[in-house]
Amino acid sequence: MNRKLWPALLLLLAFAAPLRAQQPATDTIAEAKKHSPHKASVYSAALPGLGQIYNRKYWKVPIVYAGIGAFTYSGILNRAEYREAREAFVYVSNNETYPTDNKYIKYQPNDIISIRDYYRRNMEVSFLLLGVWYALNIIDATVDAHFFYYDVSEELVLQLKPGMQQPTFPGSQASVAPVGLTLRLNF
Questions:
Q1: % of the chain with per-residue pLDDT over 70
Q2: What residues make up the domain containing 133?
Q3: What rounded mean pLDDT belongs to the chain?
Q4: Phi and psi dihedrals of 71, rounded to 5?
Q5: Which of 10, 48, 51, 112 could hold 89 in an S-S bridge, CB 3.0 to 4.6 Å?
Q6: Is residue 40 packed enough to be buried (19+ CB in 10 Å), middle (13-18) or exposed (0-12)?
Q7: Residue 55 burial class via C-beta count within 10 angstroms: exposed 0-12, middle 13-18, buried 19 and up
Q8: CB contact at 8 A, 51 and 41
Q9: How far apart are the C-alpha atoms of 101 and 84, rounded to whole Å?
Q10: Long-range contacts of range 104-110, CB-CB < 8 Å, 24 or more positions apart?
Q11: In a domain, 117, yes or no
């Protein structure tokens, strides 16, 4: 083929391909995208706080990360103290004499065991609570997504006011009318 025909042929194919692929217009109305609780859960599981952003509850994101930061900090701090107490126990139980800057070597082995167990328990609880906080983040995003279209109108009213009842049966000569509270719910 001629070299001058190749660009023309490519141009023709480039413009002809989309014309064949187009669909005829329909008169159906496109459905509005529904807010998906599954999508909110997956987002929140992938990156904590992303499900809250998807639900447009931006104010919850700092709370999620404050909890994650607090539990992570507590776990790391307790892990460092646990390791130091464990090293002190090995140092004291082996009657080592080399210089060390471990603050727990001045205690007796039984005391060091108690210190070590205390920090290990705190470390484990901190990391366990971190996992619970992560799960609560996902649950919160899912529940918020379920209630995304929930209508809280101004007509939903709960009133609590004092009430007084007159005796209802005939012939009653009660000197004191019953007093109480009336709870009224309008929706």
A1: 72
A2: 34-166+180-186
A3: 84
A4: -70, -35
A5: 112
A6: buried
A7: buried
A8: yes
A9: 10
A10: none
A11: yes
* pLDDT, greater one: 28 or 179: 179
Virtual torsion, Cα 5, 8, 9, 12, nearest 10 deg:
-160
Q: Give the separation between CA 92 and CA 112, rounded to whole angstroms.
A: 9
Per-residue burial over 119-139, b = 16 or more CB atoms within 10 Å of its CB, e = otherwise: bbebbeebbeebeebbeebbe
Q: Report yes or no on 78 lying in a domain.
A: yes
In this prediction, residue 163 has a pLDDT band, given cuts at 50, 70 and 90, of confident
SS3 of residue 180 by DSSP: strand
**40 contacts 138 by C-beta, under 8 angstroms:** no
More confident residue, 131 or 15: 131
How is residue 23 annotated by DSSP?
A: P
Q: Are 138 and 45 in contact (CB under 8 A)?
A: yes
> Is 123 part of a structural domain of the chain?
yes
Closest by CA to 140, choosing from 46, 47, 52, 39, is 52
**Residue 151 binned pLDDT confidence (cut-offs 50, 70, 90):** confident
pLDDT score at 29: 53
